[in-house]
Specification:
7 helices, 9% strand, heme binding
Length: 187
């Protein structure tokens, strides 16, 4: 009987030692909505009622943009701004408007995911949400209504975040696209 009491006492002792470890493991291996996050716990301790802001990969609008420039670039000249020449800016054109995206070299630089749009007007590919080289072309006249909305959203997004350094002048572009680009410049 004495050994049973000793075994129960030992079990209780070791069980108490394991409880904090089990609590920590449960807390960090489950993510149920009923458990407060680390941020909520720190807010409880400080008395703050501030909720954690949702994280986003989208950058905030740039409040220090320079006035738009109207410099003319041919497609051949624009190719020089594809990020392949160190020290030279990186430009992306959308609907004929050229944006300086040099600040985001980690996205538009050589070998990066969006470099396909650097040094050119890849409007059609942006509207289609395509990273295929054959889609990264300036003629977006064949986009359907949904893709056109996506393209307009991209243009709006870039306009709020990157300096406009010029516009593409391409005599080989269809008259329909040139007219759509001109309408974009006026709005």
């Amino acid at each position: 009987m004495l050994s049973l009491k000793t075994d129960v006492a030992s079990l209780a002792f070791y069980g108490l030692l394991l409880l904090p470890l089990l609590y920590v493991l449960r807390k960090y291996t489950t993510s149920s909505p009923s458990q407060p996050s680390a941020t909520e716990n720190s807010n409880e301790l400080t008395g703050s009622k501030e909720e954690e802001k949702p994280k986003t990969i989208m950058s905030a609008a740039n409040t220090s943009l320079q006035p738009p420039k109207d410099d003319e670039f041919t497609p051949e000249r624009l190719k020089d701004y594809d990020g392949s020449q160190p020290g030279k800016p990186i430009y992306v054109a959308i609907k004929g408007t050229i944006f300086d995206v040099t600040a985001k070299v980690e996205m538009y630089g050589p070998g990066k995911s969006y470099n396909i749009f650097a040094g050119k007007d890849g409007s059609r590919g942006l509207g289609m949400s395509s990273l295929k080289p054959e889609d990264a072309v300036p003629d977006y006249s064949t986009l359907d209504e949904n893709d056109m909305k996506v393209l307009d959203d991209w243009h709006s997004f870039f306009s709020k975040r990157y300096n406009i350094v010029g516009r593409v002048v391409d005599p080989n572009l269809s008259e329909a696209v040139r007219n759509m680009n001109n309408l974009q410049l006026k709005s």
